[in-house]
Amino acid sequence: MKRLLSLIALPVLALGLSSCSSQVKAKRPVSYQFKNGETAKLVNGIAYAPRKAPLAVKRAIAAGNRLQNKPYKWGGGHARQEDSGYDCSGTVSYVLREAGLMQGSMPSDGFYGYGKKGDGDWITLYVRSGHVFMTIAGLRLDTGWGADRDGPRWQTRTRPGTGHVMRHPSGL
Q1: For 144, phi and psi rounded to 5 degrees?
Q2: Confidence tier at 23 by pLDDT (50, 70, 90)
Q3: Rounded distance, CA 99 to CA 1, Å?
Q4: What is the annotated signal peptide range for this record (predicted)?
Q5: Which one-letter DSSP state was computed for residue 171?
Q6: Residue 159 to residues 53, 60, 134: CA-CA distances in angstroms?
Q7: Is the pLDDT of residue 87 over 70?
Q8: Given this model, what pLDDT does residue 10 score?
């Protein structure tokens, strides 16, 4: 049985890896610059959506706000939707699910095939092997990079984007 599963997994893995080469890769750092009415505003750790943002974006930001101060927990957000902590893919899955943009959850590498290629107008996912983070209305939601490794947090610090593939929900 193990051998059969490995034989099945190899073509699936190869298909997933070959599709990455046709992806749109980030070429510049992920930076936050507040633009009144166009980007989310961060006040005391809480994000506020622009008034003209689509409802799904407002729901995504509200979901991200609910995750603030949760600790990083490997596997968090996968076995249970409401968990005591979240890892990177659990965070992104939670936010997209609560915004009505996906069902269930997936590991970080699963996001290589999520939605559409490239940068979104409102929501962009940044995927690389073993990690995923997102921007919502220009504000980054990430579980850690550099000194910021506490769990799901809104971030305004610039982060390198090189090596990440960009994906976005259809229409956003």
Answers
A1: 160, 145
A2: confident
A3: 39
A4: 1-26
A5: T
A6: 24, 21, 11
A7: yes
A8: 35
pLDDT computed for residue 47 by the predictor: 98
Q: Residue 153: helix, strand or coil by DSSP?
A: strand
SS3 per-residue string spanning 88-144: HHHHHHHHHHHCCCCCCCCCHHHHHHCCEECCCCCEEEEEECCEEEEEECCEEEECC
pLDDT in tens, 109-130: 999 999 999 999 999 999 999 9
Token match 């409401």: residue? 82
Backbone angles phi, psi at 141, to 5 degrees: -115, 120
For 156-159, the CB contacts below 8 A with 24+ separation are 156/32, 156/42, 157/32, 158/29, 158/30, 158/31, 158/32, 159/29, 159/30, 159/133
Judge whether 102 and 56 are in contact, CB under 8 Å.
no
Q: Where are the domains of the chain?
A: 33-168
* CATH T-level assignment (fold) for domain 33-168: endopeptidase fold (from Nostoc punctiforme) (3.90.1720)
